[in-house]
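Reopening: structure tokens for the magnesium ion complex, inputs below.
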Amino acid sequence: MNWPSAVYQQRVRDGVLKHDEAQERVVLLFDQLCKELNIYQPAVHTSNSGLFGSLKSLWQKPVPSPKGIYLVGSVGRGKSMLMDLFYEQTSVQHKLRTHFHVFMQETYKKFHVLKQQSPKGGDPIPDLAKELAQKAWLLCFDEFQVNDIADAVLLGRLFENLFTLGVVVVATSNVKLSQLFQNRPGADAFKPFIKVLQQNLVEVELNAAQDYRLGRAGDEQRWLIPCNDENTAKLDHIFLRESHGKPIKEETLTVMGRSFVVTKAAGDVARFSFEQLCDVVLGVGDYLALAQRFKVLIIDNIPMFNPENVNAIERFTMLIDVLYEQHTKLYVSAAADCEHIYRKEDRRAFFERTISRLNEMQSQSWGNS
Ligand SMILES: Nc1ncnc2c1ncn2[C@@H]1O[C@H](COP(=O)(O)OP(=O)(O)OP(=O)(O)O)[C@@H](O)[C@H]1O
Ligand SMILES: [Mg+2]
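Re-run output (same inputs, fresh job):
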């Protein structure tokens, strides 16, 4: 195992990363966490390690759980990059790194399966937590966020169980712990969970000097302005090129037992209008299925965002989060560039992340691997 700081410094020397003092400070905290994890055994595993393990646990004083890290900061500062660096270097074998949207999807799926299996009225959360903790007791979440009351309730109980089992959590987020799920109906009920998180994670702010996503625009435009015939024709051409001329047909994806119809699919490319994708009742599961099936996505006619239509805007944000995570190549025609599609005077804070991501996704190398 190498210390995260050693790998970070090497990447700076190799010119892969720019030296950044704020990142350097955070990477030292990850070194410290690696050290603590090296000598730590969580409750969930000591109780499962056979006779020798049980005897050992009798004469050894249990080491208290190390506190995880909640890395918060504005967009493009290197939070995910630093967490990934830590994740690669830690000696922990039972580990999981996941995007928070994906984790929630899978957790709901397992929750429903366990609920069906358990006798009437049984509570599946303790089993769910145990199953998860046995697979991985170091959980690294990218983009921790709490979007609705159902997530808030499930998360609160699940995490309490996970921490009791000795699970260590690391997370990145754009939202401070104290601000998670605030100013929403039900926010007060969520406060005890914030406390639990504060007890088990150290909140660290990453105030890196710059948004490292900016300034990488490539040659071919992937965000075409405005929505007119000329740009539709350009997207037709891109569709043909990216799908290597394969026939365009309808394709049905199955998402948690439901059908999600992609009306225009060819090879690894799917094409939708903004309306079809963001102005109908689709959710993160649909977007995930889309991004897992297709490497390239084309969206026609992204209009100026109407601040009244919060659902469409939130769906678009969710879609971009998923596409970013899956490294999907994105081509669009739009009424304005991504900075101006949602007028600054109307827009809510979460959209800054979307803009930052869209900027990075427009670079020439994005999605080519
Ligand atoms: N010191 C650095 N030098 C060069 N590139 C960097 C540096 N730090 C981060 N980057 C790059 O900048 C991009 C954005 O970093 P990253 O995704 O980690 O940001 P983030 O803080 O997680 O942003 P978000 O809040 O939007 O998730 C990545 O491609 C990353 O590799
Ligand atoms: Mg990130």
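Residues 17-18, 20, 23, 73, 75-81, 143, 172, 174, 212-213, 353, 356-357 surround adenosine-5'-triphosphate (ligand 1) (CB under 6 Å). Residues 223-361 form one domain. Marking as resolved unless the reporter disagrees.
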